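Example 3.2
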Amino acid sequence: MFGKAGKAYADKIAQHVEQAALKHMNSKTPAATEEATETLGSVSGKRKALFIGINYFGQKGELRGCINDVQNIKAFLTSNFRIDEMLVLTDDQSDPSKKPTRANIIAGFKWLRAGAKAGDSLIMHYSGHGGSVRDTDGDEEDGMDETLCPVDYASAGQIVDDEVHDVLVRGLPKGVRLTAIMDCCHSESILDLPYVYKINGDLEIIETSKNEGISKLVGAGARFLMDGNKKKAMTSVTQGMKMLMKSGNGGDSSAREKTKKTRTTEADVIQFSGCKDEQTSADAMIGGQATGAMSYALITSLQKNKNMDFTHLLQSMRKTLEGKYTQVPMMSAGRPLVLEHPFMI
């Protein structure tokens, strides 16, 4: 709708809206953070990787970029890091054992962690649909469990975050590193990790923990509004304001404490997710190729600086998507790790 000058003006207005929203939320619940204190272990052993990409060919909600995401992430990681073993599950393969069915994904989780010991590095990348269902065990602040959707989810069922954590994460030995890259909707807590990070490396620990992401969502809605896309603007603003009002009342602190007590890990578990639990992740067309916006942002950021530390990588990913998509990439861990170290797998 606008030229370059108009887009610059829209960005300026959106920044003012974002800052005002953040100031309002922090005035309602003064910001509180906790410094990360625990040391990230070194990687000196075997490196294993599991890649899962699901386009859901011929199904309702078919996606276009998920298999491309796997190919792109795999190509980047193998070009820049050593990977000793890998397993790829995509729904374009003819081998039934390589299809991303519910059974094969669970088996893939077990394969990835089998025999893991201190110094080993495990990498898991998932690109596909994510969903949410009502929480039944009281460990979710928003009352909803997040899910992964296998290619056969309609018949075999979704994989709830509790099961993802139990099969993939729980009991990993101290000194093992698991890096998960989750490019799907509702993915912030898909591994049920208790420690969520701000872009300065501090931990978000109370009601204000989501202020920054929520304010960016409101700002993104304002940006879309100024740029003329009313449908996206209304969706973003409505969602953002609901979250804004909710933040003033705080979340379910008992659920938060339960997650800390039952999901804190001995292993170094780090998750990058495509969006907040309340958001969707875009299946986009970028540079003429269908791709997940989060997978694209991760690769683009690391191509600029492969030695970027984890917290600056999160910041760069958010910046890459800001103004183009409403989703806010997130980072979480299984224990309060200091992540001012170069990204390494």
